[in-house]
Amino acid sequence: MCSFCNQRSISGSQTDLTAADVHSAAQTAIGSLSQSEAKGGEIAFFGGSFTMVERSYMISLLEAAYEYIQKGIFKGIRISTRPDGISREICEILKKYGVTAVELGAQSLDDRVLMLNERGHTAKQVCDACALLKEYGFEVGLQMMTGLYGSGDADSIATAEKIVALKPDTVRIYPTVVLRGTRLSELMKAGEFVPKGIPETVDLCARLIPMFENAGIKVIRVGLHSGGSVEDGFEGGAYHPALRELCEGRIYFNYALGELEKLGEGSYTLFVSPKEISKMTGQKKQNLIQLREKGYVCDVKGMDGLSKYEVRIKVIK
Prior knowledge:
The chain is α/β, with parallel strands linked by helices. The chain folds into two domains: 7-241, Aldolase class I (TIM Barrel); 259-315, no CATH class. Helices cover 45% and strands 20% of the residues. The chain has helices at residues 7-11, 19-32, 35-39, 55-70, 88-96, 111-116, 123-135, 153-166, 183-189, 198-214, 230-233, 243-263, 277-281, 286-293; strands at 42-45, 76-81, 99-107, 139-146, 170-175, 177-179, 218-222, 234-237, 266-272, 296-302, 312-315. Helix 4 links the parallel strand 1 (42-45) and strand 2 (76-81). Helix 2 (19-32) runs parallel beside helix 4, helix 8 packs parallel to helix 10 (198-214) and helix 10 (198-214) crosses helix 12. The longest helix has 21 residues, at 243-263. It is globular. It starts with 6 loop residues before the first helix and ends with a strand. 39% of the residues are buried.
């Protein structure tokens, strides 16, 4: 239980998972998916440190999931765990039961921040676990948090740079959310911790996402999933059900503004990929409103052939 952690709120589960639950979830998925969709999917165990639960219990869950991998119904198993929950013995077990992807809750690669937030592992253990998982051929994911107790934008950027150097396959970015029943909740109520809100979090994540994507690392999540009991347990911090949309909208805004400043005030059409129009426009048209306030009157149109985050600008005579 780290300073920020209340897994029952995050996962929405109040009871322990069983092998029967694994079968039930798999059967539900099979019933709602086509055969081709199922074969492209994974059975995933999240919401805790999977490799640090009691060994026979972990294996019972893996055995239940592995049945569907052996039959070719799903392509593999994905788990999340702590960096200090990885060893050669664990890697051998995971390989045996069809695990294909392992995500590590790194959270930060600053030992001071890790200590303040009672993580119980070091940055070196993240690096060592990442190397070992790669040696065994697993797809490796790293999860980082922003806005932790004692953390600022500078060390979040530094953590992102170190993650890029580790070359994981995927990254999840989880801005800190203060949940009831956590150490952060106590610190916030005592005035010792002020969680970052959505505006500053969006600004920071709009810097982090391109760092990973430009390095060829897929960002597969930004922010906690909605649902479960997160809303009920929420006390502060950067929680928004469409946080990624806000962050990507800020990326578009930052790029467009930088290009428009070179052209000067005036009226313009901004062309983006058709499926990215809403992000360029911004939630409730906030991007266009803010650009107008800076002297740039813009409309947004779709243009086929443009890549994500690419913006073409046309002067309106």
